Amino acid sequence: MDRRFDPRGRVNRALLVGVSEYDHTKPAESDGVPGDLPAVRHNLERLEAVLRRGGLFGEDGITVCHSPSLDEFSEELRTAAHRAEGLLLCYFAGHGAVPSAGDELFLQMRNARVVAGGRAVFPGADAFSAVLTVLAGSRAERIVVILDCCYAGNAAKVWHDFTDGRQKILLLMSVQANRLIDSGDGTRATPFTEELVQLLDSGGELSLLELFEQVRGAMAEAGRVTTLEDPWEPQFAGEPGMDVLLGTAREEEPAQPSGQSRTGSGKEDAASGGSGPKGGGGPRPRRPPRIPGLGGGLLWGRAGAVVRWFGGLRGRVRGAVSTLLVLALAGLGLGGYELIGPGGDRSCAPPLELRLLTDPELEPTVRAAADRYFVSDANTTEDGCRRTGITVYSAGVSSVVTALRRHTDAWQDPSTEDDNPQRDIGPQPDVWIPASATEAVRVIADQAARSLVVLEPATEPLAYSPVVLAVPQDLAGEALGERVGRPLSRLIEDLRRRDPGARVLRPDPEFTDSALLATVGLYSGAADPRTAEQSVRPTGRLSPTAAELLCTLPSDRAADARTAVLVPEFLLRSGVGCARSTRVPRTAAYPGDVPALTPTFVRVRWQDGDRDAAERDAAVERFRTWLTGAEGRAVFGAAGFRHATEFGHPLLDDEHVGTGVLRLPRPLPGPAERTSVESALEQYRRARGPGRVLYLLDSSSSMDQEGARGWDGPGGGPGILTQSLGGLGTQDEYGVWAVYDTLGGRPYEVLLPFGQHRRAEAAQVVEAGAAVRDAEADPHAALLAALDDMAGRGADDERPRLIVYITDDEDNNRLTGRNLDEVLARARQAGVPVVMVSLVAGSCDRGRPDARIAEASGGRCLDAGEDLGRGLYDEVARVGMKEE
Asked: Which pLDDT score, from 0 to 100, does residue 656 have?
């Protein structure tokens, strides 16, 4: 049966969304997107013109959204979905982002940010699963989604898992999963959309499947490649045999409707691929339908199902998807599928999946190595099939060490919300690459008796990188002897002698090994760790990684020019996403008492994980052999690492030398001792704690209104609060206020008295006493009371303090004008950071009250666009002294 839908004569709608300008971009903002996309402006102009000429959409049937915010996009998407009855076409061009697991795609709108960490989150972006939910509710008979963004192919996994309503939705994706793509030079449309527009403008009938085959062939003919230098292959996902007519016989271009003028010269841009006629001046020759060899696989069923996205998937996603597809097809009686390998004519089984956990500082390098290995000859059979996929993810070093020491049972079988390494860290790893071999020694030396894991670290590290004091060039010493081998304390003294206003900063020692090793040196020359901590105390929140710290500094040019940072040497070469030209150049000084990074390959074996032990061992060994060979060393060398074992630790690649880095500094420090690392970590926790935290829990009636998500479950206010208690220990002091207008006129009721508590007992008190009241909340009065209370608690002992306010922002009408000004002034004066936790997306956008209060206090703003539980836990853990 012909299932090609002909939308002519129906009520059709097209929503064209292009985000060319972003509010938050690197390097100006460390949590910004990579940059603006000027080519996207051309995309919208070209595509709108072609669709109008095609005649499928009426005069008011095309809506063009230039760089919308998330709220604006959501409204336009709902409107288009509501109005379409025949064909609904949704096009998006802009930045795309995926979490480390790769099981969701986020479309980043104008106000997007990227909050890095063990699990990145993407405020200001819409999850593709949410987009599909809106589209599935449309009355449209067919829905076509076209994505032109990095990671576009990851949408296919989301579509496949979206079982309720996907039957009428078809996806055309610009690139295979887990791939970054080039947006072009900005003078014309992006490469994918350029080919798409030329084909749609060919003058004859063209269906979506034909368009897919032809644009895929055009990209191949033009020799387009992804940033990994493998073929750039557009993808398609849809139900078997489903198709839609998109191109029709050429009509005269209609006059521009009144009030809908478009910018531009009126001339079409030249084709980016160098093939075919320039612009839209004439029909482009039609290419015959073709199915080129895929970079990983083509799934073809007896029923005619074509799910071409499978070959682009890698990592945990590919392993999971292959299993789902096999089970789904078998259950539907659609067996007889075959997996076609890169050559297009070989049958390939789904590859085994390895899970690789690493340090957040190492993740970009390790991910690059895994990507390179995936397409290498070592990972390809004689039949052209991939042997192994690798999922790379990272988590804070303290959390990982604690989990491997104490909580392997919970990691293997999570039983409570409070203790769930699978949620907080990621899946059980097959391989762990800590940034220091010492971390594996720490785990092995102090594992709990009930441990379900065995660690097998390699005898030699993969690479080497010293931790350096990166000093602004104008403040750096000139003599070589002033840069190499001296204690860190002397280097800092010399720096402040040259400029008394100079500062030294270091990232979070609980999160990365480089910061923890820097702390070893920092304390070795200090009589009092608390004094040492005060000397590197930031004015705002503590940066989790050195890369974020380096990218944050340029936001204040004066501070940048007077601030030295303790970072791993390799980051001065290639480890940061902000452009080097926007930062003050820095010179590396090599302290002799700061241990070096020694990334080490550790095989992780799990009890009862022996079902495929032999095959998994072989896969791990193949990857380890490749990683320690010439190709693996080349990846580390390109990132700025040094040889791990050769005398003097020369650079792995002399062509990749960072600015201000010495080619062969001598002497260089060795790896860390376990006792020195654990001593430094214990002293750090004592120096910064015990902490004091005051929670404010909005308990007004709006928190539990119908349709609200403010109260029940782990994502509600009480659930988020009790999860974060895991970042506190028995020596910390904390309390909880229920915020609402009480009968006595006070803006809060004490739910948990301020003091020291056992975590389980505190959680029980909160869960038993927390309740929604039939009253409004007054955030103005409650925040003033909290700031006054905390300002008087131990202001002279320098113990860390924090205020947390969890709210749905329903009563923020009391937080405007003079009331807001009063809170902002008190927040600046009190010196107590405030973490504003909003259960509403967009509350942390620039200029909103929550964002302004967090900024004024030196705290942080979290809203529903992020993982609130994880984000609040991290903030509380930086203040508290959690027990292992």
From this structure: 64
Concatenated DSSP letters for 619-639? HHHHHHHHHHSHHHHHHHHHT
At residue 291, the pLDDT reads 27
Q: How far apart are the C-alpha atoms of 117 and 402, rounded to whole Å?
A: 17
CB atoms within 10 A of CB 813: 10
CA 551 from chain centre, in angstroms, equals 16
Check: CB of residue 692 under 8 Å from CB of residue 843: no
280-294, 508-522, 843-857: which has the minimum mean pLDDT? 280-294
Distance CA 431, CA 356 (A): 5
pLDDT value at position 663? 87
Q: Which two tokens stand for residue 311?
A: 């070959």
Return the number of other C-beta atoms located less than 10 Å from residue 531's C-beta: 11
Angle made by CA atoms 506, 834, 509, in degrees to the nearest 5: 20
pLDDT of 223 strictly over 80:
yes
Beta strands (DSSP E) in 138-242 are: 142-148, 169-173, 206-207, 235-237
142-148 and 169-173: which strand pairing? parallel
Q: Concatenated DSSP letters for 777-845?
A: --HHHHHHHHHHHHHTSSTTTT--EEEEEEE--TTGGGSSHHHHHHHHHHHHHH---EEEEESSTTTTS
Q: For residue 482, how many other CB atoms are within 10 A of its CB?
A: 14
Q: What is the CA radius of gyration of the chain?
A: 28
Of 358, 420, 450, nearest in space to 118 by CA: 358
Choose among 300, 321, 603, 657: nearest CA to 458.
603
> How confident is the model over 231-276, as pLDDT tens digits?
899 999 888 778 999 876 554 444 333 333 332 323 223 222 222 2
